Amino acid sequence: MINVLFADDHEMVRIGVSAYLSAQKDINVIAEADDGGDAVRLALKLKPDIILMDLVMKEMDGIEATRQIIQQWPEAKIIIVTSFLDDDKVYPALEAGAASYMLKTSKASEIAEAIRATYQGQSILEPEVTGKIMNRMRSKNDEYLHNQLTDRETEILLLIAQGKSNQEIADELFIAVKTVKVHVSNILGKLQVQDRTQAVIYAFNNNLV
Q: I need a labelling partner for 132 at 20 to 30 A (CA). Which of 51, 94, 100, 124 fits?
């Protein structure tokens, strides 16, 4: 049996979901909490296999409850079940240690499958959450890429974005055209782009110009 603690401040939600889950042959809801503080207390006392955690609750929200549980019991497996997909909810919840992130619009059967998967060590995320994470990773990766540029390379990238040729850049910076070509090659390599046009697009997309 997979023992579950369900924390949600809406009684009707708890009753409905708990009834469905307890009807499963392999899932048992052993306790319910209507507040984050109660969720922390019960989680540390009962050590359930899975914790279903709402985010917006009175007294203590689900993010802080998740953080406190993970700090005191790192092995805890917490599934966020919420109505919110805002950045200020998704990222803090995952950073606090939540293993999976589900929406309340999910079917009860989908939550049951998420419980089974999370219990087995998988991470179940709503498609929208996965998209947010991928975009954030790409953003961080892009930031890392252009942070590799030297001051001179950044200066040349901005001049390229202005449409200047290698000769014009050389004249403006008082350096040889051959030196400009070397810098341009380095810029393309560091930004992982194929040509000057892609480098300019990168510069605009990352607010460098």
A: 51
From CA 206, how far away is CA 209, in angstroms rounded? 8
CA dist 125 and 103 (Å) reads 9
Given the structure tokens 């998420």, which residue do they identify? 114
DSSP, collapsed to helix, strand or coil, labels residue 149 as coil
- What is the spatial distance between Cα 185 and Cα 192, in angstroms, rounded to a whole number? 11
Give the model confidence (pLDDT) of 17-36 as tens digits.
Answer: 999 999 999 999 999 999 99
What is the H or E stretch that residue 118 is in?
Answer: helix 108-119
What domains can be seen in the chain, in order of their start residue?
2-127 (3.40.50.2300), 148-205 (1.10.10.10)
Q: Which long-range contacts (CB under 8 A, 24 or more apart) does 194-201 make?
A: 196/160, 199/157, 199/160, 199/161, 200/160, 200/161
* Residue for token pair 């207390």: 41
- Would you state the pLDDT for residue 201? 84
- Output the pTM of the full model: 0.66
